């Protein structure tokens, strides 16, 4: 009986640890660090809402440098079916679509981006995102963590 409780406790602890690892995000790497950071299954992390009324848009930074001369923040952007999101970039950003699809429009060019597609948005560009289902992208921007 005690072995069964011990095994159950161990399994529960591992499950909580795994869940916590999936939720770990927003890590700012100290300037001068030589240590690699690793985020297993990052595409399954919880992504917080952008809290823009009427849109189903989510953004979550995962990791960022703390170098004030060369800030860079990387994370996930997700959009789900519903109203479009229009965003004006105050920084340069690159996005690679990793799941689903999203329509991206800068007012001149409109593309349906799918997994493997890479997009670049220069500082000052105004971009409209929409989707017929949902889309997930990995983002990397020249900004501080949580500066989107």
Give the SSE map.
Layout (H helix, E strand, L loop, with lengths): L1 H22 L3 E3 L27 E9 L7 E8 L4 E4 L4 E8 L1 E4 L4 E4 L4 E4 L4 E5 L3 E8 L7
Parallel strand pairs: 1-2
Antiparallel strand pairs: 2-3, 3-10, 4-9, 5-8, 5-10, 6-7, 6-9
What do these coordinates show?
The protein is mainly beta and 148 residues long. The protein has one helix at 2-23; strands at 27-29, 57-65, 73-80, 85-88, 93-100, 102-105, 110-113, 118-121, 126-130, 134-141. The chain has a six-stranded mixed beta sheet with strand order 1-2-3-10-5-8, with no helix packed on it. Strand 2 (57-65) and strand 3 form a beta hairpin. The radius of gyration is 18 Å and the shape is globular. The model is unreliable at 5-24 (pLDDT under 50). It comes from Methylotenera oryzisoli. This is Ethanolamine utilization protein.
What tags apply to this protein structure?
148 residues; mainly beta; Jelly Rolls; 4-stranded antiparallel sheet; globular
Structural domains: how many: 1
Shape: globular
Number of strands: 10
| Whole-number mean pLDDT | 86
CATH architecture: Sandwich
- Under CATH, the topology can be stated as Jelly Rolls
Structural class: mainly beta
**CATH hierarchy, class:** Mainly Beta
The main pleated sheet reads as: 6 strands, mixed
List low-confidence stretches.
5-24
- Estimate the helix proportion, in percent: 10-25%
Please, what is the CATH homologous superfamily?
Answer: Jelly Rolls
Discrete helix count: 1
Radius of gyration: 18 Å
Please state how the strands of the largest beta sheet are arranged side by side: 1-2-3-10-5-8
Summarize the helix and strand pattern as letters. HEEEEEEEEEE
Question: Distance N terminus to C terminus?
Answer: 52 Å
